[in-house]
Amino acid sequence: MAEGFSVTTFVMAATLPWPDDSPPADALGALDPVALIVGGKRRDCAIRKISPLGTTIRGATGEAPGAQVAVELATGHRPLGTIDWVAGGEAGIRFDRPIDMVALLNRTLLSQPGERRTMPRVELRCHVGMKWGASLAAARLRNISARGLQVEGGGSPVADWDLPPRDTFVSLFIDGLVVPAGEVVWRKGNLAGIELMEELRWSSLMPWVREAGRRGAI
Length: 218
Known about the structure:
Layout: E1 9-11, E2 32-38, E3 41-50, E4 54-58, E5 68-72, E6 80-87, E7 90-95, H1 101-110, E8 121-123, E9 127-132, E10 135-144, E11 148-152, E12 169-173, E13 182-188, E14 191-196, H2 202-215
């Protein structure tokens, strides 16, 4: 994936980001800025993952688990929460109330200049069909953005027979979404990162995310 783009991940499922939830293998870009409000003091940090139930913040917080905080997002959202864990320069925050991820995605898109509006990285699960040459494979989507996607094969973590090797050009098939062809740019066990030949427009990706939520695919 292209270096320099934001790799902050919007997790659609109602799960908590945990300290052992490592960044994706292609996480080469920047992270979106965020401010942590603790006792009236504002600290600039970066946000690695956010879900309806919580968020992972990167940057020294100086606070121990149990501290009451507010997370000031670039969109203007300011959910309240509690620091759940601190590890490796990151902190996990559990929100007091679940947040609406579709609304957050909408406001994130609206905060961008119209001519450069780009869908951020979204984590959800669904089936992906892959074809290269005479080969076919069924994979599971892990995350998707305007520029690419990460998929998981059905083999063991050390086997790679069920996914195409690096530098392979593939056709992709996802129910309800027209996806351009792509190239496998990295492989790690049964995971693969695919860079798309053409950017996926937010105007097609966002309705698909909404529909995936209605179908319970996330």
